[in-house]
Amino acid sequence: MEVVLLSFSVSLLFTAGIFGAGQHGQAGHSLGFSSFPAPNAALRELARGAFLNSWPVTNKAELQNLKTESLNDANYHDTDDCAKKLLCELTKKEDLEWDEELLIKYYDQPVNYGSDSLFFNIAVKVGKDGERRMCS
Known about the structure:
With 136 residues, this protein is mainly alpha-helical. Helix content is 54%, strand content 0%.
């Protein structure tokens, strides 16, 4: 009886959406049904923002929320500052790959304290103005 009840309870939780996947089969940006985010989530969202910015169609007002969403997600997931360290280190690199150049072009902006990309802009500025050890 306990197994049937447990099975019914778990089934109900998935059906109700508490642990269930959202649209496109994912619960937010998590791995399957895990509540832990993907370890590369901050870098993925950092790149997503730069890629979205490179497309002229995303300059339309109705699509601006995509860039804002990716920056907010990158900030949220960058708990270990890995994405900021990457940007800081990329400023020291001589020959950038195309995707690295895209990242630097997008995040190398004047520091604007009201910007969603504030901390990423500061990371690029620190990398450009400081020594390599400042990126750690």
